[in-house]
Amino acid sequence: MAKLYFRYGAMNSGKSTALLQAAYNYEERGQKVLLAKPLIDTKGEQLIVSRLGVTRAVDFTVGANDDVYAVFQREREAVIRADGADVACLLVDEAQFFSPQQIDDLLRIAIREGIPVLAYGIRTDFQTAAFPGSRRLLEIAHSLEELKTICRCGRKAVFNARTIDGKFVFDGDQVAIDGVDVTYEALCGLCYLDESGDSLASGWKAPVALGIEPMGPDADFA
Ligand SMILES: [Zn+2]
């Protein structure tokens, strides 16, 4: 049975590069792939833009209310007519911007059509809350894989802090496109809490002091 894969990571973890590499791997074996992305991402319009400088046009974009299953089948039919071969894989960039219903369609495509779906996206927004599409992917994807990137301090980055004019901001709309309205910096948990003043998606809370000398984080996890 084909699977739905969610490959997630913080900003700048190389998701688009990994997607384009996966597409290349299929095509190197003579197989057909379809590339899709949501319309909401205005960064590259119809392009998947990798930070390494590789760009590639998507085969179709998906509007907020589009029936992804129907659009995919239409595009798949065009491939079969043109090439006489079926689609081997559907690759989705910026999958966090798909609606939960559209993510459900990706699962249907994998299971009912037997075509693997590789969805790449960001797990959480700048306030550390899941994007609706990412939450649904975390719920139903057969396979979860984290693409890693490094915080400014050297730890693994897990959150996406938003900056405007070089200053961190922790209030605002969930969606603001990187490089257009704002910029983002991938941070580890400690750097995020330091910058947000101990705020997370549920609000603010001060660190709770321990009544005795702490043993340090290495004591339990060495
Ligand atoms: Zn850090």
Automatic annotation (TrEMBL):
The active site is at residue 94. It catalyses: thymidine + ATP = dTMP + ADP + H(+). It is an enzyme of class 2 (transferase). Homotetramer. It is found in: Cytoplasm. Keywords: ATP-binding, Cytoplasm, DNA synthesis, Kinase, Metal-binding, Nucleotide-binding, Transferase, Zinc. Substrate binds at residue 184. GO terms for molecular function: ATP binding; thymidine kinase activity; zinc ion binding. Zn(2+) binds at residues 151, 153, 188, 191. This is Thymidine kinase.
